[in-house]
Amino acid sequence: MSHLAPAPAPAPVPQQIFLRDCYMRIQTPDPSLPDGFNAAKMTTLVWNQTPEQVANTINNMHNAHGTNVQLWLKGDLVGMIYAGIYRRGSMPIDVTPQTGLDADNNVISIILPSGVAKLDQVSPDPSKVVGLNKQVQCVYGIHLKDLNRPLVPNDYLYIRMQYLKKFLVDFYKFSGGNTKTAPAPSWTYADGLGRVLVITLEKPPM
Questions:
Q1: What is the separation, in whole angstroms, between the first and last Cα of the chain?
Q2: In which domain of life is the source organism classified (predicted)?
Q3: Distances in Å between the alpha carbon of 17 and those of 31, 81, 113, 130, 161?
Q4: What is the pTM of this model?
């Protein structure tokens, strides 16, 4: 009697995650450390930042006293412009880019939608932001809705800036430089854990 081999299990369907639905933080690795990439990743899974801490960090972008908290961006077109990744032609949104965030070796920590659902966005206390820092936009802190439900490894992933910039290069080639009229393409990054990050340049609703 012949025995049929069992049918192979179907391949798992990759989990598609849109960057526009995520929070991202960009950090430059410390060249003095032997493993700067890992040192540039998130330092905690429990987030409880306050509006005053966010304001103090905006006032002290160079972290003069080492007291700054880690601020975040949304993974949408506004965040791309602020990070200096989107630079071609006229800017579709009035945002001033922050220099230095687009270096190829920078580490991008990305909190996925499952993690975003556990968090509240924390804006700076406007009474604490001084001078030209009042013009800083798009950055904010985060606070867990329930401190007993911290982030877990499935709530985040990491990529290097060079991969995000590759998407922009592909986008400009696709659009022929006419970024105003070209449809918003998408680019994907597989993290090897069954997750596929989908990156687009859709303008968010105003």
A1: 69
A2: Eukaryota
A3: 31, 21, 8, 37, 18
A4: 0.80
